[in-house]
Every structure is written in structure tokens, then in C-alpha cells.
Amino acid sequence: MPRTFTSDRAAYCSGVKASAGPVSMWPARPSLRTARAPKPRKREARLTADAMLRGIISRVAAAGRLTVPVEQAAQFVHAAGPGVVPALIATPEEDRDLGLIGFTRENVIRAITSDASPDEPKDIPSRAIALRVALEEDPPPVLSPAERALLAEWLDRVAR
After folding, report:
1. Which of 2, 1, 33 is nearest to 15 (CA)?
2. Which of 78, 83, 124, 128 is the most exposed, fewest CB within 10 Å of its CB?
3. pTM
């Protein structure tokens, strides 16, 4: 067999079978192939849950109570859940403190929101976040897409 990129690549990748065509990047073991293959239904559910979370966070931002940008707040929320659940699972049942769930939730909420009521004056970053969300939901027709993108970038900077 002449040396080609396909045959060299197949030789280089342990556990990978070369076919007559391009190199298959899936391991020869079916169990690993299944573990790596994306699950369409789970992906759709995750995307739906992400959209719901961002919608909730956007409403908080529109009320002027968010202290970080919407995307960053969503990342905080996502990071907290996968950290708490494995920690509780790894703890012996008799030592588990289920109060950790509520404690973590409250601390994430406290980290990304302010206590200011809608009637009180808000700080500049909270106002910038609220304006950014409002402009995304109802973009002003007098601004071009480039101007809206520039304004969004400026508001993101002010929000930090």
C-alpha cells in the first residue's frame, strides 16, 4: 500500500480503523463511539433549557437588577449546578447536607443580582445591562446593525 495521508493518519491514530476512503475518526470500540456520539434529543433539551434560563436572566436584567452581563450570569448558573450535584453524589448518604443546594443557589443569585428595588437609583453597570437587554428585545430602527453592534459592545464594557 503506498504511503498516503490517509494511511499515515490511520497508523498514527491508535484504535482507529482506516477504511477504503477517508480515515474514520471514531474508535474501533463501539462503546466509545456511543459515548462520544451526540444525543440529538438531549442536545435539543439542553438548548431549550438554555433559552429558558437566558429568558429568565434577561427579565432580571431588564428590571435593572443584574450586576453582570446576561451571558456571564448564565455561565455562573450553569457552573454551580454541575459542581453541587457530583459533590453530593460523592458524599456518603449519611453525611450529605442537602442544604448545600439552596446555599449554592442563593449565593449564585446574590453574586449576579443587586438588591436595589426598581424605585431606587441603580448603579451604572446595572443600567447598562438593562439597556442592552432592552435594545436586544426591541432594536431601534434608527440604528443600523453595525451601530447596534457597537452600542452593544460599549454597553458590555460599561457593565464590567
Report:
1. 33
2. 124
3. 0.53
